[in-house]
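Quick start: what a row looks like.
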Amino acid sequence: MTLSRNKVLAPLAALLIAALALLAGCGSSGSEDKGGESSAATRTVKDAAGNEVQVPEDPQKVVSLHYAATQSVYDLGVNLVGQGIFEEGAMTKEIQDKIGDVPVVTTQDEVQVEKVAQLEPDLILAPNTTSDDVLKQLREIGPVYVWTLRGDDRANWEQRVEEVADATNKTDKYKELKDQFSKRQQDMASQYKDVISGKSVGVVDAFEDNNFYAWGEKNMTGTLLTPLGFTWSKDENAAVKDEKEPEKDVSNEKIGSVLGDADVIFHVSTEQGKTTAPVEALMKTSLYKNLKAVKAGNNFPIGKTTIAGFSDANYSLDQIEAGLKKMK
């Protein structure tokens, strides 16, 4: 029996297609995404929650669900396509201008999962405060890396930047930023040694009338000030010693017993040089004005106490250095 040309070629074509498919698979470390399109090469990392996550080697469409990671993404030079909501002044003007047109995918209370899905992200950065049910939904959209927002390591803001750097394959950039920041602190400690030596420092914030917020040494601003050579106010440390995190809301009436021993006080401001209304009200009280540091003229803005990344930290160092130049 004579086989037709089509009957002979069809099996050969099928074998050729299969071979080509096999070769294509061997030549790429990529994977097929849920939409059926070939994705870029991937790498496996372990996130802050201990999950092994397969993430792109070079992510191009990152969604950040919280502004703390948003700033890290910006600092590291990664492309951001979606972001968490943030208040005016939570970032420097430079960053706000840069990310002003990036879609917001959260409210104050929840992640808008459908908005995230519409952006087709190749990496989602979720804080460790995200609920399990939301994480499950997000993992149906793309790789989810959980990073540390709250917990025992909250004060270690550099760790959060490092986690985002790990997720986005920007560890070298993180190390560069860290080295630059450490050198700046060392240079300031040397330059202002005579001004800082023997001085105790305290940090104050306020969120409501008739109360102020005290911060202990083991907080984010502590990582900025103590390497410069300041010692922390013993009274402020004592005021928060029994708290799970070294911070506490205190009645204005007690401010003398919490910050009375500080030689220098830094008060919280926005990243754009504005003092919030509650802090302004606190600073106008006679109790505040009678503090030793305030009467000496050693009362300065510092920026935010919740440091999101190196832009935040360097802005605060700018404010601290401005204060050091005026310190008496």
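That is the whole record. The longest strand covers residues 200-205. The chain has two domains: 42-169, 186-326.
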